[in-house]
Amino acid sequence: MSGLALFGLKYPSLLQFENDCREETTRANLKARYGVERAPSDTRFRERLDELDPSHLRPLYKALFAELQRGKGLEGFADLDDHDLISIDGTGDFSSQTIHCAQCAEKHHRNGTTTYYHQMLGAVLVHPDCAEVFPLAPEPILKPDGAKKNDCERNAAKRLLTDLRREHPHLKLIVVEDALASNGPHIRHLQALDLRFILGAKQSDHTFLFDWVAASERTTEASFSDAKGFRHRFRYLNGVPLNDANFDLEVNVLEYWEHAPDGSVTHFSWVTDIPVEDSNLMTLMRGARARWKIENETFNTLKNQGDHFEHNFGHGKQYLSTVLMHLMMLAFLIDQIQQRCCRLFQAALTAAKSKTRLWRKLRNRFDLCLIQSWEALYRSIIHPPQIPLWLDTS
Ligand SMILES: [Zn+2]
Q: 3-class SS at 377?
């Protein structure tokens, strides 16, 4: 809970958290609001979390997801045919030449030096029109055992999707991923788990597929213009064999060109198991492009927040780095749920004008006032109380 408070209140470093915890008011608030009986020293904090098997944190994502559903946070979030879009992508969250732990992946360079790094595969519910995104449990990409990096990310994807399906057996999901995912084994795995998909497909990786589309008489073209002056041009064909080796595996191919008013053209292509028709072209395209939200709304937010992460929070010898990544992600998920479902949080954010200012105001109040409830805390930001301060000179 100290870890959750650390990231929930966005302390810039463990040291600053420890210093603030010396204040009696902060200690009382941490106990009342986060259930922290006694905040640990920064050394104890690192030692204790370094021993913690990160799999113990997994159930928290599911519990928060249940809260999100109970709070009707996913109403209006479903996109195509009542499905939620889930964007899956990998990111690096740490890299160093010197600091490393038992969980670090290693890259050995020719000059004899080694780069140590951590990566994870994130899975985030997204919607083209919503600012909020909701992460499910990310999957750490483990130390490669002589395998190529790519195999590692693919293995992590297998674990992630299997766990996701086990924990959410009834969720109707469309997986959106980049072009690395449009291969036979991965698509078969998605099908086996009853997951729909829209995956990037590069012409250079799929010559067979694109030749088939070019040669077929069934290939259909369509084009629309919107009020902002963009022209959206599509070409699609359903029921195309993925490639020579997977001739029995049929996918639907969607190509798209966006003509901007300034004359520039952007091209995308995807494969999907959703039947493509004139009426769902725009929805499919917008759903596929919502994939970027995992990078823009999730990873970048966490990275900006976690500048000099290992320096300010520590790396550990065993699990610390992974546990801290989870705590940061969980705090982010709680923020996103509040932003979506809690009118008081929304009003406080509007009053504070930016997230940075909101977090600062929260920390200031933890330091200065005895906070009776989260409701009182947010109300004090929406309508700041006048606190008189004067010297008694009598
Ligand atoms: Zn490490």
A: helix
Q: Nearest-5° angle of CA 172, CA 177, CA 179?
A: 145
Strands 114-126 and 134-141: antiparallel
**pLDDT for residue 119:** 86
User: How many angstroms separate the alpha carbon of residue 316 from the centre of ligand 1?
Assistant: 7
Q: How far apart are CA 300 and CA 296, in angstroms?
A: 6
Which SS3 state, helix, strand or coil, does residue 351 take?
helix
> How far does CA 60 lie from the centroid of its chain?
15
User: Can you tell me the distance from the alpha carbon of 258 to that of 225, in angstroms, rounded to the nearest whole number?
Assistant: 10
From the CA of 101, how far away is ligand 1's center (Å)? 4
Of 6-10, 88-92, 266-270, the range with the highest mean pLDDT is 266-270
**pLDDT score for 145:** 56
Convert the pLDDT of each residue in 166-175 to its tens digit: 999 999 999 9
Q: How many CB atoms lie within 10 A of CB 313?
A: 28
115: closest CA among 130, 128, 104? 104
- Gap between the Cα atoms of 105 and 117, Å rounded: 5
Q: What is the set of domains in the chain, with CATH numbers?
A: 51-341 (3.90.350.10)
Average pLDDT over residues 50-75: 93
Helix H or strand E segment including 63: helix 58-70
- Taking the centre of ligand 1 as the mean of its atom positions, its distance from the CA of residue 320, in whole angstroms, is 8
Helix axes 355-368, 24-34, angle to 10 degrees: 110
For residue 48, report the distance from its CA to the centre of ligand 1, in Å. 16
